Amino acid sequence: MGAARAAGIAAVLGVVLAALPALAAGPSVRDTTALRVCADPSSLPFSNTAGEGFENKLAEMVAAELGVPVRYTWYPQSVGFVRNTLGALRCDVIMGMTTASELVQNTNPYYHSVYALVYRRESGLSARTLGDPQLDGKRIGVIAGTPPASQLAALGRLASLQPYHLVVDTRAESPGQQMIDDVAQGKTDAAVAWGPVAGYFAKRHGDALTVVPLTAETGGTRLDFRVTLGVRNGDDEWKKTLNTVLAKLQPRIDALLTEYGVPLLDEAAELSHTQ
Fold it and tell me: By CB atoms within 10 Å of each CB, which of 17, 105, 128, 188 scores lowest?
């Protein structure tokens, strides 16, 4: 979701929101006249008020299947996001939540992605893992507090890291975009970003950047995550309805995500054959 969006869905849920209490179960208060969505107003490639993010497009697809309009509650992805949106009954669904989150009830996953290494094509690098000796002494950008930051620290690369903020007001800052732009401009040698962020912002630089999904990474730090829709605990029928809609839309969802440059993994956590 991921400041939150720029950092990556997994990182924000795991680091920023983990301490918040889960939403209490109770009778459904869902508005059936619209698809009420909680979203960040300025967090591409996920969402923005102009409707340019892939989660905006997904919301439109889901709403069309339900035969209702989309209605947004805008709130920056930061501490208190779930509490102040879904938890405050201001909306009925969050379009992107990892299955690791206990703050909401998860639908079935609609995509599975992984953090990716990004570097300039002209750099001569061909690294496929963060431990590759080619990266020794290279300046590597990473969002502080995210899983790859832990992996890089475990590999002894702290001295060469260029950290970017995890928690920001996304209306004013986009650390994920800045991190990828810095690679393109030669300010850093490489960056590690959540797959959707890496793929989207790298595409803005044409063919200048190489994006390497870190599916070959080994070690104790998990870098791949499944992403779902999030609903309130207790909204079981709503969850079932959304699961049915997602299953019907899955081919279109895959095509949408591929268009946005999202690295998609299959059930074996390998790059999908469509990539």
Answer: 128
154 with 107, same domain?
A: no
Assigned domain for 265 exists: no
Assessment of whether the complete model's pTM goes beyond 0.90: no
Domain, as residue range, for 147? 114-213
29 and 8, same structural domain?
yes
- Sign for the CA dihedral angle at 172, 62, 266, 124 comes to negative
Same domain, 155 and 208: yes
Half-sphere exposure at residue 149, Cβ-oriented, CA atoms within 13 angstroms: 17
What is the per-residue pLDDT across 60-84, written as a single tens digit (0 to 9) for each?
999 999 999 999 999 998 888 999 9
What is the four-CA torsion angle of 137, 143, 146, 151, rounded to 10 degrees?
0
> 3-class SS at 226?
strand
Tokens encoding 25? 């179960």
